[in-house]
Give the backbone structure.
Amino acid sequence: MKYLLFLLASTTVFLTGCSSNTLRDYPRYSEHVAKQMENLEVNNPANTISSDVPDLSKVPVYMAPGHQFTLSHSSDSKLSGKFRADFNGILQLPYNVNIDVTGKTFAEVKEQVLNSYRKFFQKGVESVNFALASKDFWVEVRGLVKKPGRYLVRPSDTLDLVVDAAGGVQGDISVDYFTASLKQSKYEYQVLLNRYFESSESVEKIRWLGGDSVFITKLDSLAGGSKEIPFVTLIGGVTKPGKVLHQRDASLYYYIEKSGGLVSGLGYNECYVFRNTKDGVKRINFSFDKPDTIPVIMANDTIYMNTKVETEGDTWLTRFSQVAGIISTAALLIIAL
């Protein structure tokens, strides 16, 4: 019996005094966030990868890598055929004539071609026929694609068609997040493929210049990456907890739908949004069944909806069950002695 009383006393101390083991003096994540955001505007779109691309509509139209030309002359069969500028913009013609077409108008390229062949003709070099056959562009696609390499693309081809030409991304773009790093002449920028593919506004913006490079990489959707990609994280109350790409003006219901919908047993009153601010991490409490309390969802918010709500009576009932189980075990041990 003494053993039983001792065990009961120990159990009571454990259940009621566990808070004494709580660590209270530790670095606060809220303080860390506050320091990080002192000089950073909250939710500044400039700090995130988006589908925005440089406006190249005003860039002058020049000859470019990938353009194809025709050459012919009635008295020389060697001066006959179609010739394409390589990835570096070099147009290799018969008799070891090489012309760099990049950044030149067609008239300038033609004049250089005729001047190069002038030494082969005493007269009549003007009879050399030189014309532009097509305006395709060389684009090199590397990284997480199934068939990396250099591809000829048409001026009207969008980024998704170029990625498809390289076999598509290695992975599931409906689950993971991919970026395309583009280098076009003096322009360098990144595009979030998930957003680009979903957007009907951005697909016409990319204009190929020739000799472009596209490098596909995957973002770790489980990492923070708040400066790279605007996520909203759902950690409770939904079928598929995790990260969802932030969409401007999207409601809470959008993120719930993207996360597979609500689970049963949702605690409507214990719903929270945790938000990084210049003053640290702040908590917004709202009730799911009261639409007027639901906040605007911002980039990098964390949404939590409790799926198991216990009243104070439920808590004491749970503890009583734990104590009863321990007593039963202790009694069996005493009987065995």
Q: What stands out?
A: The chain has seven helices and 15 strands. The chain has three domains: 2-46+230-305, 68-134, 137-219. Confidence is low (pLDDT under 50) at residues 3-8, 42-48, 221-226. The domain at 68-134 is CATH 3.30.1950.10 (wza like fold).
